[in-house]
Amino acid sequence: MNIDKTAVDGAAVVALAGRLDNAGSQVAREALITAIEPGGRLVIDMTACDYVASSGLRVLLIAAKQAAMAGCKAVLCGVQPAVWDVIVMTGFEDVLEAFGDRTQALAALTATGATP
């Protein structure tokens, strides 16, 4: 699991690349939790993430809940079809909103009035 953390237009962007499995879950969790800012915006870019295990889904759920508790608007983007199928099968699509790409996700966060 490779992780790239950047800031774009005042939003934290955490790009996950590789397999979000047992080996990558802990590092992904730390990266996501530390990117959450009270009242902020978080984009979880999964464009280069080609596999998500149950431990990875748990990390996404924890990040979504932590973000909500902090008043941070968090969204997914670039979710690959195979990964999206797993998310849908588990009912997880109701927890985090997903967008096709990073540009769409950032635009949606701006449109909702979420502030950095």
From TrEMBL:
Single Gene Ontology MF annotation: anti-sigma factor antagonist activity
SUPFAM superfamilies for this protein: SpoIIaa-like (SSF52091)
Domain of life (superkingdom): Bacteria
Gene3D superfamilies xrefs: STAS domain
PROSITE patterns the record matches: STAS (PS50801)
Boundaries of every STAS domain copy: 1-109
One Pfam family, short name: STAS
InterPro entries documented for this protein: Anti-sigma_ant, STAS_dom, STAS_dom_sf
Annotated PANTHER family: ANTI-SIGMA FACTOR ANTAGONIST TM_1081-RELATED-RELATED
Family statement drawn from the similarity comment of this UniProt entry: Belongs to the anti-sigma-factor antagonist family.
Protein's name in the database: Anti-sigma factor antagonist
